[in-house]
Design goal:
By secondary structure, this protein is α/β, with parallel strands linked by helices. β11, α7 and β12 form a beta-alpha-beta unit. It starts with 17 loop residues before the first strand and ends in a 5-residue tail after the last helix.
């Protein structure tokens, strides 16, 4: 098991701490129990170099050793797994030093107790694999040696950053991948909407590799970096202190409340925590931050009460772990009297219980002798944990992986002689093939198998570090990130179980550069700032934003429209001029009433068709005009109701032809009046033009022209039912699309042309001497007609939806009513109420001067 710091030894043959157990096959492990002595937690301007005497065990890491020993013990006691083979192990301490690591690796490859590389004479104690290490650089150092001998290496820490100088080495990764951890942190940030973060990494290959991985991934998901701090790698603490102080000040001065820490526990991360804030905290409470530590930054290694308070509420990713049955009892029964060959136990006992084992440790006069009643289970959690940690769980699985691979290799050789006798164990390089195919369920119930890249299918646990007042810190599992689940289910978090740093008063912290833009507004980027820093602009009219922090506002679908706050699309109501609504009822009533009046007038004229006033006004022309007016009133009903294909075809064409007949009849009547007056003069040649033929030809020819226009319209651009989504806000207007605006204008223009001619002629003939001047009434009627349709155009164009239809109906009714009232009501009044004036004498009476 591996974790390298700084050895500082000058002895070429250092007194390695070791733990060994013989067997037919040996699992090698390179442990690292060394740590910086507590006397070096502070720093001075000129610190002394670290010496061997300053190195003491990291008590929590002792569990790694016990996990390997426990797994080997279980396998050797299992009659079903490797029944004829005894597993052994050799564990060496590398003291965090590359030189020590290389030497320990070569010792594993040599004959036991003889440091002779490439020379092995033992029948037993054949090295099959090496388990290690926790530190990436140690793993690389070990792999460069093992690659020569094709000995597999099972890494329970994170693998080193690979480059062109480090080609494919025989790694089998027992811990979850670095990429899975990056994704897990991303999911955590996105879950709590922390988009403005600080990233602190080590200034080495691993740190740079992490930065290059997360920057494009996190930026793609909307996360920005307030800054990225790199902790320099120095020999002495003072070499990194100044830079660490600057990074600390930037962290505390930043608006980002979330800090992602990618650093080993040996790095300056804890120097920042220990040395800078402790002196200032006593004067003022420091600003709280949410620390998100990667698996490399073992926050559990912080033992000082002050340090534990600083990480209160922090979140960290740890390797997934589970308690193997019997492991607690195995640790509980551990003692110097029952553990033979364990060179680490004495150092562990000295560090944790501050006592020395009699007749074993000498030269420690300041420590009392141990009583023998010391129990590991009585140690506080910050000194030693009884539950299996993530690294220990990976080591436990690594031992079983090797056992199952050896079992598979043994079964493949059943057709031959014993592998030991045949020398098959001398070809352990073949073990790689069986390692890749390992798949089993361990005693904790978890499945263990490798993928095609030699990486185990596992995950990370999300831990919340809680440090209550006057109590040691403890970890609370609040989530997990697994590799085997679908993307939507890979990350889970129980935010209700999280205890936040006291600075935030147990409210979920916020870590953003700019406040969120609420629905109804969109983000506007600030020039020269990261994309997480922005202003909020209200959506322009007609657009909405229905989510927080939208990049741009968008239009609603055609079937909906924005509400007043412009944050929601409301379904539009379907609207058209119907018979049920008040406006439709009113216009329908007018149309039917005027139609009834027209029928009454027509009936009165037909009943009195032989009277002088009817005969004098050309009875057939009068009946034609009244009939066309009746149809004009009724044609208004085609514009009311749900637009159908038939009604859309008939609306404008029927209106155009009927109105043309009516106006041409008025024109014929006007021309008849003028010709009749001229023809009444003695010797006039116009007498022959006065008659029904001229009237019929005028009406027929004018109507045929309009009919030709309408037929052309229907043949080229047929009107059809249509839907208007945009004219009226909040409404879907059902209407008739005229097909061609040009043809519609041509129909109206032709009617207007006839009306202007009629008005002109009638106006010129308005002073003709007669007791009953027909031209004068025609003038008034055409004046009303033209006024109505001239005002129709701007009103129609400025109206929308059903009101456009209402304007046209009103114009039809008003203009038709003007013709009816001014032309026929004076005559109807005489017929109905002043019959004494309906005589020939009255008609030919000259108007007195």
């Amino acid at each position: 098991m591996v974790h390298i710091l700084k050895c500082g030894l000058r002895d070429p043959h250092p007194p390695f701490r070791k733990y060994h157990q013989s067997g037919d096959l040996i699992l090698g492990a390179i442990a690292s129990q060394a740590s910086i002595n507590s006397s070096l937690k502070g720093f001075t301007e000129e610190p002394a170099p670290v010496s061997f005497q300053d190195l003491i065990p990291e008590t929590k890491n002792y569990q790694h050793i016990l996990a390997l020993a426990f797994a080997v013990k279980e396998i050797n006691e299992n009659l079903q797994l490797l029944p004829n083979i005894t597993l052994g192990f050799h564990i060496y301490d590398s003291f965090y030093d590359a030189k020590c690591t290389y030497q320990a690796t070569l010792l594993l490859l040599s004959t036991w107790e003889r440091f002779v590389p490439n020379y092995v004479c033992d029948v037993q104690n054949k090295l099959t694999a090496v388990i290690g290490g926790l530190d990436s650089q140690t793993s690389l150092h070990v792999a460069t040696v093992l690659d020569i001998y094709k000995v597999p290496q099972l890494i329970y820490g994170h693998p080193p950053a690979m480059n062109d100088k480090t080609p494919g080495l025989p790694f089998y990764q027992m811990a979850a991948t670095e990429a899975l951890q990056c994704t897990g942190i991303l999911y955590l940030l996105l879950h709590f909407k922390w988009t403005w973060i600080v990233l602190i990494t080590t200034d080495d290959d691993d740190g740079e590799s992490f930065v290059q991985s997360v920057i494009p991934l996190y930026s793609q998901h909307g996360i920005c970096f307030a800054f990225i701090g790199r902790l320099p790698q120095g020999t002495f603490i003072t070499e990194t202190a100044a830079q660490a102080i600057k990074i600390h000040d930037r962290i505390m001065g930043s608006r980002a409340n979330t800090v992602v820490l990618y650093a080993d526990r040996k790095d300056v991360l804890f120097v920042i925590v220990k040395n800078f804030t402790k002196t200032t905290y006593t004067m003022s409470k420091p600003k709280g931050k949410v620390w998100i530590a990667t698996v490399h930054a073992d926050l559990g290694a912080l033992e000082d009460e002050w340090e534990q308070k600083l990480i209160h509420g922090a979140l960290s990713f740890t390797l997934h772990s589970n308690d193997a049955p019997g492991f607690y009892e195995f640790i509980e029964n551990r003692s110097p009297s029952t553990s033979m060959g364990d060179g680490f136990l004495h150092d562990f006992w000295l560090e944790t219980f501050s006592c020395v084992i009699p007749n074993v440790v000498v030269g420690h006069d300041k420590f009392l002798n141990c009583t023998g009643k010391e129990k590991i289970k009585d140690l506080p959690a910050d000194a030693f944990e009884m539950s299996m940690s993530g690294q220990s769980y990976s080591i436990y699985n690594a031992v079983y992986v090797m056992a199952h691979a050896l079992e598979a290799m043994s079964l493949s050789q059943l057709k031959h002689r014993s592998m030991v006798e045949s020398g098959a164990w001398n070809k352990l390089w073949q073990l790689h093939h069986f390692l890749r195919g390992v798949s089993f369920n361990n005693s904790a119930g978890d499945e263990v198998s490798f993928d095609q890249n030699g990486e185990i299918s596992t995950g990370y646990d999300v831990i919340n570090w809680v440090s209550p007042s006057n109590e040691s810190s403890h970890r609370v599992k609040v989530g997990k990130m697994v590799s085997w689940a679908p993307a939507a289910q890979a990350f889970t978090i129980n935010e209700e179980a999280i205890i936040w740093p006291s600075w935030f008063n147990q409210a979920q912290p916020v870590s953003v550069c700019s406040e969120s833009c609420h629905p109804g507004s969109s983000k506007k980027m600030k020039e020269g700032k990261p994309f997480c820093c922005y202003d909020c602009d209200p959506c322009p009219e007609g657009k909405i934003s229905d989510w927080t922090d939208m990049e741009d506002c968008h239009n609603c679908a055609e079937e909906s429209y924005p509400n007043k706050k412009q944050n929601l699309c409301i379904p539009k109501t379907i609207n058209f001029l119907s018979y049920e609504e008040p406006l439709g009822i009113m216009l329908t009533s007018f149309a039917l009433s005027f139609s009834l009046i027209t029928v009454l007038v027509l009936r009165a004229f037909m009943k009195n068709h032989d009277t002088p006033i009817v005969r004098a006004n050309n009875r057939n022309l009068t009946y034609t005009l009244l009939a066309s007016l009746l149809l004009c009133f009724l044609s208004a009903l085609l514009f009311i109701g749900h637009p159908r294909k038939l009604t859309c075809l008939l609306r404008q064409t029927a209106f155009g032809i009927i109105f043309t007949v009516a106006v041409s009849a008025v024109l014929a009547k006007t021309i008849t009046v003028v010709l009749a007056f001229i023809a009444s003069k003695p010797g006039s040649r116009m007498r022959k033009w006065v008659g029904t033929k001229l009237v019929s030809s005028i009406v027929l020819s004018c109507s045929l022209v309009q009919a030709a226009i309408c037929v052309t319209w229907l043949a080229t651009n047929t009107p059809f039912p249509d839907v208007d989504f945009h004219s009226v806000t909040g409404e879907i207007v059902l209407e008739c699309n005229e097909g061609s605006v040009t043809m519609f204008c041509l129909v109206l223009g032709y009617i207007g042309f006839l009306a202007i001619i009629s008005f002109t002629v009638a106006f010129l003939a308005r002073k003709l001497p007669d007791s009953f001047n027909e031209a004068k009434f025609i003038t008034f009627s055409m004046l009303v007609f033209c006024s109505v349709w001239l005002s129709f155009l701007p009103t129609y164009l400025s109206s929308k939806g059903k009101y456009m239809v209402a304007v046209e109906i009103f114009s039809i009714l008003a203009s038709s009513n003007g013709l009816l009232v001014f032309i026929f009501f004076p005559k109807y009044y005489i017929i109905a109420f002043r019959s004494e004036l309906n005589t020939r004498t009255q008609l030919i009476r000259k108007k007195q001067t």
